[in-house]
Batch of 2 targets.
Target 1
Amino acid sequence: MHSCDYLIVGGGIAGASLAYQLGPHARVIVVETESVLGYHTTGRSAAMYLDFYGGPKVQPLTLASHDFFQSPPADFTDIPLWHEEGCLQVARKDQQHKLDEAYQYQKGFTPHLQQLDATAVYNRVPFLKPDHIVAGIFDPKAKVLDVHQLHQSYVKQARSNGVQFWTDAQLFDLHRDGGQWLAETPKGSIKAEVIINAAGAWADDIAAMACCKTLGLQPKRRTIIIAGYYDFDVPDNMPIVFDVDEEIYFKREASGLLICPADEHDDVAGDVQPHVEDIAYAAHHFAQMTGTEPKTIKQKWAGLRTFAPDRHPVIGYDDYMPNFFWSVGQGGFGIQTAPAWSQLAAALVMGQGVPEHIKAEMAARTATLDDYSPQRFG
Ligand SMILES: Cc1cc2nc3c(=O)[nH]c(=O)nc-3n(C[C@H](O)[C@H](O)[C@H](O)COP(=O)(O)OP(=O)(O)OC[C@H]3O[C@@H](n4cnc5c(N)ncnc54)[C@H](O)[C@@H]3O)c2cc1C
């Protein structure tokens, strides 16, 4: 029988970052179904850091993560966690009013945001279909993250603080036993004071196993393709390009052009694969925007973005089930929020106050802990 203070279920970015925060203070075990940590959604993201993404309840956690990505602790990583790529949101004539609204909203927290006319848009992305786009807004400071480095650094640092990561260790039974939790895995039984649910798309399954009320979390499948060859030039300094309605986005990768049709299909937790119609949809949307279909598809994958019913983060203790903590609903922003999200979650797990830098960002966006509480669903 093994024992710990905190048993974290899930070895993706949510579990690894929280293990990193809790490791110096307590005995922590992370259990992960797969043989590789980060195999599911964490390993399938588009790796972007965008200030505006996710809306006002997500922004405090994104903005409060900025400084960690920019200047991580000295021993955390020897290579940068991000680089500047810029993000250009573009609009057709019928979307101009949406772009205007987006500009008015985003300039409040992205002071360097620029409005571009059609000529300036086409200068940055010359292969857009002629006369298709009428304007854009450009954030020169939008970043691309090194997700692998971030996740691995969390794991490495957590291990150095004594955290155990058990892989091939799917939690299959969980119940209260003498005031503690008793968790069963193929690698052995674990007694834990607190269960931390960081199981991504499986989070409601873990809650059901613990006899907690589930929250109605919904995994939504999203597809990405990498177009290998294209008969137009992609400028070296091309920013990430977003349709203002998020119908499509694309960005440069070492191996080609990453294209995402921004699809969102309700799905069930599992090892999702891309559907042929979504791949076709990506190519179709890209052709509508550029007049050119991708010539070959070098890579394709799909992942699950799991949302709470209101699409806000869920961070906090369950009100009804003792010592059951939720850190779920990372949706499409679990990587770019991970530093602040895990700091906030660790503070709440340990019964401490909200860290000051997160408190300031929450206050600026009138976000409160109630917005993140699992109790908000009744
Ligand atoms: C196509 C796509 C693009 C995205 N782009 C971005 C982006 O640009 N920027 C951004 O910030 N975010 C992005 N995201 C979202 C981001 O990837 C997720 O929010 C994040 O990875 C979620 O992390 P997680 O740890 O909660 O989930 P996961 O990485 O899925 O980890 C959960 C883990 O729990 C484990 N588990 C489940 N049940 C059990 C059990 N019973 N026992 C043990 N282990 C269990 C699973 O095996 C899994 O490994 C994107 C996602 C997708 C799919």
Target 2
Amino acid sequence: MEGKTFESKLPEGYKKALEIDAGTGKWAVIFNVIAIVVLVVVLAIAIPLAVIKNESVNIYQSPLALIIFLVSMLIYIVLHEIVHGICYKALTKQKLTFGLKLTCAYCGVPNIFTYRKTALISVLAPFVVFTLVFLPLVVWAYYFDSIYFILASILLGLHLGGCSGDLYVAYLLLFKFKAKTTLMNDTGPVMTLYIRED
Ligand SMILES: [Zn+2]
């Protein structure tokens, strides 16, 4: 496997260790509940901070801010998946798949089995990139305007919560499946981990 980022076929001697379907069933519910909880926690911090500034917050007074927020959210969802895609493409040159379900947006590289390092980079990239974008944005918005601050905080909250599935898979790869030989098949919504049987 030295130097290889993926296998086209599951090699001999591997067994399926875990399957996570973020699109349907148990995991879809868990990841979405976590996403809502994270958003609530972020707002529970942001709203008092806005109140401390002693400005009234009424988002209905600022339709432009709302429109910018909604457009930013849609662009974010697309860019998040594109960042997954860029990493998978750069590391494997294989065919990608993109999609949107009610429960999740997704990007996968369905026809191959990527090694742990490739999987880890691709899974974590949007979390790292957009946390580095949204945190400064929230700080800037705090000093700019309370409405933008709240909306930027919602964006940050949706991002952090929306990464729950990515972060769980990253956690598994970092701490539970530490062997370099661990393989992951990522169809987008469904991520399946394979380990060597020995
Ligand atoms: Zn993601």
